[in-house]
Amino acid sequence: MNATAEAMAIPTAVNAVPTTAAMPASIAIDCKLDKVFYGDFLAVRDSHVPIEKGKITGFIGPSGCGKSTVLRCLNRMNDLIKIFRFQGHVHFHGQDVYARNVDPVILRRYIGMVFQQPNPFTMSIFDNVAFGLRLNRFKGNLQEQVEKSLRRAALWDEVKDKLNNSGLSLSGGQQQRLCIARAIATEPSILLMDEPCSALDPVATRRIEELMIELKAKYTIALVTHNMQQAMRVADKTAFFGVDISKGGRTGYLVEMGDTQQIFENPKEDLTKKYIRGEFS
Amino acid sequence: MLNPFAKADTVDSISGPPSQFDYGWDRTFQFLALAGAWMILILVVFILWEIGGQALPAMRDYGLSFITSTTWDANKSQFGILPQIWGTLYSSILALLIGGFFGIAVAIFLTQDFLQPSLAAVFRTIVELLAAIPSVVYGLWGIYVVIPALRPLANWLHETLGWIPLFGTSLSGPGMMPAAIVLAIMILPTITAISQDALRLVPYKIKEAAYGMGTTHWEAILKVIVPTASAGIFGALVLGFGRALGETMALAMLIGNSNQISLSLFSPANTLASLLASSFPEAGQTEIKALMYAAMVLLAITLLVNLMGTAIMTYTSKKFEGKK
Questions:
Q1: Fewest CB within 10 angstroms: A220, B71, B150, B254, which?
Q2: Nearest CA of chain B to the CA of A177: how many Å?
Q3: ipTM score of complex
Q4: How do residues B266-312 score in pLDDT, each as one tens digit?
């Protein structure tokens, strides 16, 4: 646990960003998380994760390190859990998303999310993609926008002849790309991906990874992954989270964050080094 | 049972084949399950055979005019059940509209995080208790509570909006509306219980997807969760409708047992089940045969409704869930 203490002592470069005013224009969403509780349980502490515009930020770390929790703070998905409590701030376009007067529903309209398990709605492929458009009362050409989203999600050629079939009739990898199409149809600026490939086979995983790299030209992506190779392949920035068991519970925290190459080739922290060498997972 | 791997069964090995007793138990259980399934099938066929056999003479005598004519007069041996068919369907559809709306609303209310779990459990028990109230008690409650409570409103509607066929008559006592209201309450527990199961079966990941898209609580419920559970909710409505079609005692007490076809919500009417219950005790030989025919028609209607419901459910699950 020495490594843990060291990690705490050394301030990372990003900690130098204190307020929104000082938030550089290259940051799409700035998450400074002091403490996150589920009931009395301290789940994550002291993690400052700025997500850069137009880049893929990978969140890696052992199970239970809170990387998913941090990701879900960005669009307040954790609010669905009643006992969830958040201390800190998440700045998005100069506004703290956890401010009292912010309705998380509005926030989630601007931040797309793709989940661990493919979760298309029990509707046709077309209706799945059109869901967000209808929700936002899209006035333009629905057909066109659906096609564009499906093309961008690299699914169009496989489904163009069966748009009226159920979304659930597709294979797992196709379902996940459908979910990506659904998420990007409304052109959100940020895409959160919570282990999007963990339920997929290697071929489907490959396709989604290629897709992510294509998508970052237009979207800012935050990606939680359990797979270090995946972070290495696709992420520009990598945040490594560790688990602190010194106070009895398992509390996650940010060990270090930096360019992916630096994290994997020249990590500052001992704990990161050990994790990357595969000494624990 | 021959063990082809007997050679693997060495002194050291703990593994071994299932004993004769295990196999016997397997076979016994399989036999019992199969016998149970067959028994149900045989019972249904037997009931159909028996009632059909007894109804056959009346079927031969009256033919299809039994279904299309409107008088039921045992003295003149004139038997027609169109008013009863009308009353059965009309009361059941009204009950389905009322009970379906409130039943599904209650199911949504109890499953979609509007209440604390403990409080929701209390409400759930109360709704289930509605199913435990005997039919005859519902009938009495209808006579002493629903009809008097409904009468001023019904008569006011009749006086002011009497030109609408629905309010064409005044409510003097028993009638379609009090019967339909009580019937709606009687089928509500069925609809609520099964809809709740269907709503609870909607995977959490689907709800998450809805909220992730930025839906409000109600948008998530109405646009995603209820449509996902729609096959189950539809099944609940079919079962509720089936119950309403066959419900006897409370209706016999509340509907007025008058053989007329009227759109008016306040005029007395009759149903097939109520006709059977009220006429059997004093029926003569020919009337009993006619009643058997009426029972056969009621059976056919319920069967048809259930078959149609199943067909629609299979169709929707194919279309929306991609099941083959």
A1: B71
A2: 14
A3: 0.84
A4: 988 999 999 998 888 888 888 888 999 999 999 999 999 989 888 88
